[in-house]
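Per your request, structure below.
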């Protein structure tokens, strides 16, 4: 049984409101949940304190036991400072020269080994 940290949609038509939940990978988007970890309101202003609310201690627990966040939740957790960014991979350059793939740090832009 794989456990995911993902968003469950609530609210009315054209007024979305999301809960950050822990759920089994095979359950439906709005189906059975194991635990509610917070909420996300995309209609609030970007600097509004009520836009995102997360239970940091419970999220750290679920990540420690192997729960996998979805891409959207992973971006939210990165912005909150709970997880490090994914390394970016540079495949080629714009002028057409092919080079070997290199890992680049998304924070500093330096090439990693």
């Amino acid at each position: 049984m794989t456990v995911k940290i993902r968003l469950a949609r609530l609210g009315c038509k054209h007024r979305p409101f999301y809960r950050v939940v822990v759920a089994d990978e095979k359950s439906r988007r709005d189906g059975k949940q194991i635990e509610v970890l917070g909420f996300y309101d995309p209609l609030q202003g970007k600097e509004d304190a009520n836009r995102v609310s997360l239970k940091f201690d419970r999220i750290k627990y679920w990540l420690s036991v192997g729960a996998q966040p979805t891409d959207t939740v992973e971006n939210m957790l990165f912005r909150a400072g709970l997880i490090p960014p994914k390394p970016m991979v540079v495949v080629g350059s714009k002028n057409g020269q092919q080079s070997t793939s290199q890992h680049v740090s998304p924070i500093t832009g330096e090439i990693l080994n």
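Strands lie at 3-12, 15-24, 35-40, 52-54, 68-69, 88-92, 98-104, 111-112.

Regards,
D.
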